[in-house]
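Reopening this ticket.

The earlier resolution said the output was attached, but the attachment link was broken on my side. Pasting everything inline this time so it's all in one place.
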Amino acid sequence: MSTTVKRNIITSWISFLLIAVLFTPSYASLPLVDSQGTALPSLAPMLKRVTPAVVNIATSGTVRIQTNPLFNDPFFRRFFEQPSQPRHRKTQSLGSGVIVDAKKGYIITNNHVIDKADEIKVTLSNGESYQAKLIGTDPDSDVAIIQIKAKKLTAIPLANSEAHNVGDFVVAIGNPFGLGQTVTSGIISAMERSGLGIEGFENFIQTDASINPGNSGGALVNLRGELVGINTAIFSKSGGSQGIGFAIPVNMASDIMQQLIKHGEVKRGRLGAQAQDLTPQLAEAFNIPFRRGAVVSHVEKGSAADISGLKSGDIVTEINDKAVRNADMLRNNMGLLRIGQTVKMKVLRDKKILMLTATVAEDDELKENIKGKKLHVRLDGTELQNIPPSSKLYGRIEGVIISDVVSGTPAAQSGLRRGDIITSANRKNINSIAELQSAIKKNKSLLINIRRGNASLFLFLQ
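Inline output:
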């Protein structure tokens, strides 16, 4: 072997050893400062301040196990043994919550975390546990407020979620399963996400910070330690995080929180108009150059929209100086306005820009509940309601919604369920309680067509 070849081999081995030594990780000795003595960036100081405000929530409750309505028929009971007492089962739920008022002990979380709970227990980061009082819930936005009586609590300051943009760094904090805080980081990947079908009102912040099971109701914070949103849901085909998580913006959650604390419920107003997305086809038909907005398809006479001068065919492009991209955004923005609040609308009509002002009216339809027994003996045990404007079904399906069914009543025995929508009665299509009453009249028997989820079926009640 020549001297040159030997020299090359030796040089190669020395280079390899130097690279191995220089680039081998030394995690145990990672310095907290760089070579110039400058402190390395770290989220630890911020997290130390805010993590005590994120709590674990454990609930327990009891639900009745629904039996097949056929077993209520004496003929079937002769052949099938059934328990004499209604069967029940215990339910448990685990999630997270965020302390937003340290003095009064208010905690904001998701409605689905405490839904149907008989008992709510809050565990702080230091291990102390307290029984919580339910202040109010809003299922349409999936927000709930609970309260504990404890001293020296830590609250997270609220940010302005509208001041944040795609690309801002955020941290998701939860306290799942009583294991203590879990922290994941990422960025805001989208704003004002709607039309997902997760909640009645959707205006989500989308983030790639992992939101894991048990983190629902936890905090999404910015790098200053301010609350940006309430972690709510993930998009996943496997059940685990796939980098698409959703949080309720804190501005929206804070507004709902104030109403829940004051009234125990959210009193939503209504505009009295229906709208649909401005599709490319509609834009072409209206001969307009842009593709974003909500096309007004119907205006109710005497409503706030009618009084403001809004007309069918108008295209709403802004509401209270916020751009309206589609009908869902218009509905969401209107659903969050309080009764008596003034709303400014930028409208395109016949290629002219108009500015209209409306005063949000109280929703009378939400008050129009009626006991089914007043309509028909076979509807005894139900509570009926016109489909409210806050519902995702409003304007998309005609009928009357069954808002409640009492177990053991004739209606429950007939197989009716809460959430069913009666679309026809005695072969007559209905769109209101008044039309249902007219279709029933004094008939002893009742044939109804109901919409249940994505399915439809007839029920003959006699």
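Reporter confirms the inline version is readable. The CA atoms of residues 173 and 183 lie 5 Å apart. Residues 16-30 have pLDDT under 50 and may be disordered.
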